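Hello forum,

I keep getting stuck at the same step: I have a sequence, I want structure tokens, and every attempt I make locally crashes halfway through. Rather than fight my setup again tonight, could one of you with a working pipeline run this one for me? It's a single chain of 163 residues.
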Amino acid sequence: MDWKGRGVVTTFASTAVFLIVTLAATAAAKTFTGPSGWEHVDQSVPPGSSEKVDQWKQGSGDLQQSLIVLSDSAVSYNDILDRIHKNVSDAKLHVTVDKDQTCDGKTSHMIELVYGPDIKRVKVDRLVVPDGSGSVQITYIRPEPEPFSDDVKTALNAYCGTT
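Reply #2:
Ran it on my machine without issues. Output:
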């Protein structure tokens, strides 16, 4: 192959790499739409942060429920899952669900736990989803024994497909 042919191959390879990186970044940018009728709470992160935070809440006082979506392009799915498991273990929290499930066609992980004193227990469901080289954590917090909100199920199903 002469040098002209190598230039074409190099240009083609560079273009292919650019397209793959661009498509991967576009695919990783899926947006979570909050539950219908819930109040969106503005969250801020420091400029230049790899994190994006969205929060919705419903109710008030002891009956308040929150849904928090934390996207972090710099912390991988495996790293955040390891951190969560370490924190749960260090805090000696009792996990009621700790399983893989599918979200948006990807292997994701659901962790459910309950904590707090007997009269004001809080239930936490956290879904961890790989997102390109980063991760998304969807955390639903509600007083126990409140059932899982249908509005939250609908929002999760829209984001993940059926969960």
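The beta strands are 39-41, 51-58, 65-72, 95-103, 106-115, 122-131, 134-143. If your local run keeps crashing, start a new thread with the error log.
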